[in-house]
Design goal:
Layout (H helix, E strand, L loop, with lengths): L3 H16 L6 H22 L4 H4 L13 H10 L7 H20 L11 H5 L14
Helix pairs in contact: 2-5, 4-5
Keywords: Signal
Protein name: Cytokine-like protein 1
Organism: Marmota monax
Length: 135
């Protein structure tokens, strides 16, 4: 028979990883938030394709490793379109938050790998399947 203290210790040790996950880092927070923003923007475009204000918003294809992303975020927040759309206001709030995190709190944790502004305008589509000729 196992003593109660050993059993309790075993249960506590087995449950630690699930109970206390590692806190998010600045980098992981920026990456997660940029993906949320991009996804929400694409959803907004799909849900409101005929809405004139959504059509004229600057595109949001974010890559936090591209130096041009800071200007892209500023342009989106400063865009005068869609002043009275709740979804766009919420999205602009997230964009402001990401800009503040990148420019202030996590400035030292971020490494820019490129400054190709056209890559943010015309992103390369991500493929999920195997390359052609392979299965």
């Amino acid at each position: 028979m196992i003593p109660w203290t050993s059993l309790l210790l075993l249960l506590l040790l087995a449950g630690l990883p699930a109970a206390w996950p590692a806190p998010p880092t600045c980098y992981s927070r920026m990456l997660t938030l940029s993906r949320e923003i991009t996804s929400e923007f694409q959803g907004l475009q799909a849900a409101e394709p005929g809405e004139p204000c959504v059509r004229y918003l600057p595109g949001l294809h974010l890559d936090i490793h591209n130096y041009c992303v800071l200007a892209k975020l500023r342009d989106f927040v400063a865009s005068p379109h869609c002043w009275k759309m709740a979804q766009v206001d919420a999205l602009k709030d997230k964009v402001r938050k990401l800009y503040t995190i990148m420019n202030s709190f996590c400035r030292r944790d971020l490494v820019f790998l490129s400054d190709d502004c056209s890559a943010l305008e015309h992103p390369i589509p991500v493929t999920t399947g195997p390359p052609e000729g392979q299965s």
